[in-house]
Design goal:
- With about 230 residues, the protein is of the alpha/beta class.
- It has one domain: 3-Layer(aba) Sandwich (Rossmann fold), CATH 3.40.50.1820.
- The chain is about 50% helix and about 15% strand.
- Strands 2-1-3-4-5-6 form a 6-stranded parallel sheet, with helices on both faces.
- Helix 7 links the parallel strand 5 and strand 6.
- The two termini are about 15 Å apart.
- About 40% of the residues are buried.
């Protein structure tokens, strides 16, 4: 059975991957990386590698994708399959850095609970903003990560490098998945990833925002099942 390591995004935990964990368990031994304790992408990758099996499949969404790309730099020979979901190889723009600093300041002034409502319109498709079950699950994940974890994660994201120069070195089977309506990592960013990784397969999901594993769980799980089955 394949070992599969899943990496959550910013303010997310294993709930981000709930459908995939439940429905891929028959073909994979699944673990979820802890990305709450380090304030650098490199540190997150090192923690993951210290706990991961010798050889494993790897999937990361958003910030998790940044970590996955770092794992491919640190230990490419250990990864058998790579899936990058709703993520980017680019460093932050000045506008993105300013927005992150503003959210960190907000969280440090006793308004951490106000961070998720500000992020929500960027995270999911507009049609899902009234989906109280989905919104509640997202808010619960953020509460679980907490204010200190959020600051560490944002610090790590702001300090990440440009991964584009190293993407052509990736040699394992790679799946790239994004939402057509993702405002954070739009389709052109996902196409860039797929174009730079030799042999990568790209799937863009219609009427889907940034949290594809939760917004379109069946579609993502199906794609990941095919990806894991392929050799």
């Amino acid at each position: 059975m394949t070992d599969l390591v899943l990496i959550p995004g910013l303010l997310c935990n294993r709930e981000l991957w709930a459908h995939q964990i439940a429905h891929l368990a028959h073909i994979a031994q699944i673990s979820v990386a802890d990305v709450t304790k380090d304030d650098s992408i490199a540190g997150m990758a090192q923690r993951l590698l210290a706990k991961a099996p010798d050889r494993f499949a790897l999937a990361g969404l958003s910030m998790g994708g940044y970590v996955a790309q770092e794992v491919m730099r640190q230990a490419p020979g250990r990864v058998t399959h790579l899936a990058l979901l709703d993520t980017s190889a680019r460093p932050d723009t000045d506008d993105q850095l300013a927005r992150r600093r503003g959210l960190i300041d907000l969280s440090r002034h006793g308004q951490f609970k106000g961070v998720t409502p500000r992020l929500l319109p960027l995270l999911i498709h507009p049609d899902r903003l009234d989906d109280t079950l989905l919104v509640g699950r997202i808010a619960a994940m953020a509460e679980d990560v907490g204010q200190a974890g959020f600051v560490r994660q944002q610090t790590a994201i702001m300090g990440r490098i440009d991964s584009r120069p190293t993407l052509p070195q990736i040699a394992c089977r790679t799946l790239v998945v994004g939402g057509v309506d993702d405002l954070i990592t739009p389709p052109e960013v996902m196409r860039e990833l797929a174009d730079l990784i030799p042999g990568a397969t790209l799937h863009l999901l219609p009427a889907c925002g940034h949290l594809s594993t939760m917004e379109e769980p069946e579609a993502v799980t199906g794609l990941m099942g095919d990806w894991l089955d392929a050799t």
